Amino acid sequence: MTVTVIFGSDSGATKAVAVKIAAKTGGRLLSVQKARTADYESCDLLILGCPTYGIGELQSDWDTHIGQLEAADLASCKVALFGTGDQMTYPDSFVDAMGILYDKVVARGAQVVGFTDTFGYDFSASTAFRDGRFVGLALDEDTQSHLTDDRVNAWIGQLP
Ligand SMILES: Cc1cc2nc3c(=O)[nH]c(=O)nc-3n(C[C@H](O)[C@H](O)[C@H](O)COP(=O)(O)O)c2cc1C
């Protein structure tokens, strides 16, 4: 099975997680600046990671290069999402970027895998929260970094 991990990161937290996930899944690691439409399409499992910036917005490199994803045909693709955020400072937009990416990949026909429950998080609202679950793996390197490794390992264990 081929795995591709594509990430954006301003200050390195999401990149560090992406490196770990790529190592554990044997995936190919790509920054969103370098990723082209064919990279999104050419794997069995596509893993996308994005921090949230502004109030509930995509990280700037994701925003700049989102057209490459929007052009991809993901109808035969499984996609798993992870997002980094800060639930204490931004409780009303916690990991919203993951919700934005979810809508983008669903619009391109993807089957999204790797939903997680919200036990252990404390937030008020998130566009990544749908039908009682997160649409991917929510991580908080600002206030819960001690939980990240366990969360990542459990999540990878549930991926197809
Ligand atoms: C200006 C600014 C705005 C942010 N806005 C949000 C937000 O709306 N929601 C959220 O969950 N986290 C928000 N964060 C927290 C970042 O998503 C978090 O620190 C993340 O780990 C950064 O990832 P990076 O190091 O890969 O860039 C914000 C951080 C900054 C500095």
UniProtKB/TrEMBL annotation:
Signal peptide positions (record): none
Record's keyword annotation contains Secreted: no
Entry cofactors: FMN
Source organism, top-level taxon: Bacteria
UniProt similarity note: Belongs to the flavodoxin family.
Protein's organism: Paramagnetospirillum marisnigri
Protein role: Low-potential electron donor to a number of redox enzymes.
One Gene Ontology MF term: electron transfer activity
Protein name from the UniProt record: Flavodoxin
SUPFAM superfamilies on file: Flavoproteins (SSF52218)
InterPro entries for this protein: Flavdoxin-like, Flavodoxin, Flavodoxin/NO_synth, Flavodoxin_CS, Flavodoxin_lc, Flavoprotein-like_sf
Gene3D superfamilies, A to Z: 3.40.50.360
Matches recorded under Pfam families: Flavodoxin_1
Keyword terms of this UniProt record: Electron transport, Flavoprotein, FMN, Nitrogen fixation, Transport
Domain Flavodoxin-like residues, every copy: 3-160
PANTHER family: FLAVODOXIN 1, FLAVODOXIN 2
